[in-house]
Give the backbone structure.
Amino acid sequence: MIPVRELEHAADAFSQAGYTVDAYALAGIGHTINADGVALGHEALERPLGALSRD
């Protein structure tokens, strides 16, 4: 989690370094996390790691 004002800069830097970036700013949250943020994080981790838990 980073301040919203740094979101675009960080997303650009990671993208230029070759990483796929999904960036979200959740209104009214500030520098913390809520249930929506947890769900977004879960989905982001499930994409690359979900295949590891399947047989």
User: Anything to note?
Assistant: The mean pLDDT is 85. The first helix runs from residue 4 to 16. Residues 4-53 form one domain. The CA atoms of residues 11 and 17 lie 10 Å apart.
